[in-house]
Write the structure tokens for this entry.
Amino acid sequence: MRTSLIITTYNWKEALELSLLSVFTQSQFPNEIIIADDGSDNATREIVESLAKKSPVPLIHSWQQNKGFRLARSRNKAIAKATGEYLILIDGDIVLEQHFIADHILAAQTGFFVQGSRVLLNEKSTQQALQQKKIRVCLCAPGIENRKNCLRSSLLSSLCSFSSKKLSGIKTCNFAFWKKDAEAVNGFNEEFLGWGREDSEFTARLLNNGIRRQNIRFNALAYHLYHPMNSRKSLPINDAILADTCDNQLVWCDKGLSQHLQGT
């Protein structure tokens, strides 16, 4: 099974560097890493080019022009470039525990997408991690929230992971799915402009199309760096798009992945 790791980013090269360095120390590598860049400046391009020389697998920079928050389009472009059958999606402010990729590969099942959890670092812990270019997190470490999510255990994971058809709690900062399932619903909906709900709406169409949700616990550990919240001004419009998808059980969006797959 070929796997592609997709990392979203926008103008935070320090966090992206830390995220990539955590990928380079994985116990099992993805077949490729794709940076889904929503219009960052040259500083991000330079750090990607520098780290590409050290990467154990191909590191691809998928960039689009900065025309505001267009995360859905950025992700679709990266998905279109992916050669993997199975796609693991994280954000550029996520740092991985060393077995993250291996755990996701182990959790992959036909007919399911996977929702993972995260450990939240506070501002002080985040600054320390960025300065040291490493994260040292344990169950008793100060400056973290969601403390239980620090614990990696195959036994607890087998006991506590579960499947569902619910939409609540979706966060694509630690998320995995089959590329063919994304193609079947036309990927992320590019009608979403500005922060919010594009991940939930994509997930809703997967669920509407018969793909079930697998919640993975105590495996695939991810550490989320602190940052100020994004603007919520687009939420009313984005909530309406999500509601329409849910109310009408939609499985397809008109403006999505297919326009980037042409010619790839």
Observations:
- The CA atoms of residues 14 and 97 lie 18 Å apart.
- DSSP finds ten helices and twelve strands in the chain.
- The chain has a mean pLDDT of 95.
- The first strand starts at residue 3 and ends at 9.
